Amino acid sequence: MFFSGLSLPTALPNITITRRENALALFQAYANDALASGAVPKGLEQSFAATVEISPSMWSQIKSSRPIGDKLARQIEKHCGKPMGWLDEARDATTPSSVERAFLDLALAAWRSTNSAGRKQLRAQMKAMAEAVE
Question: How many angstroms separate the CA atoms of 44 and 14, rounded?
Answer without folding.
Answer: 28
